[in-house]
UniProtKB/TrEMBL annotation:
Organism: Apterygothrips sp
Descriptive protein name: Cytochrome c oxidase subunit I
PANTHER family: CYTOCHROME C OXIDASE SUBUNIT 1 (PTHR10422)
Residues passing through the membrane, by range: 6-25
Molecular function via GO: cytochrome-c oxidase activity; heme binding; metal ion binding
GO CC annotation terms, alphabetical: mitochondrial inner membrane
Source taxonomy: Eukaryota, Metazoa, Ecdysozoa, Arthropoda, Hexapoda
Length: 51
């Protein structure tokens, strides 16, 4: 159980970090840089659930 908890925690931390970087890159400049508004909302929501 402890090993599975550690692996899942590490995996969700990496995914959350990756999504945080995407959010920061998108907010770096005004307007849509990489994705549409809907995709940005999906990334922000997934980041909130992961972290």
């Amino acid at each position: 159980i402890g090993t599975l908890y550690f692996i899942f925690g590490f995996w969700s931390g990496i995914c959350g970090l990756f999504m945080s970087v995407i959010i920061r890159l998108e907010l770096m400049q005004p307007g849509n840089v990489f994705m549409s508004g809907q995709s940005y909302n999906v990334i922000v929501t997934n980041h909130a659930f992961m972290m």
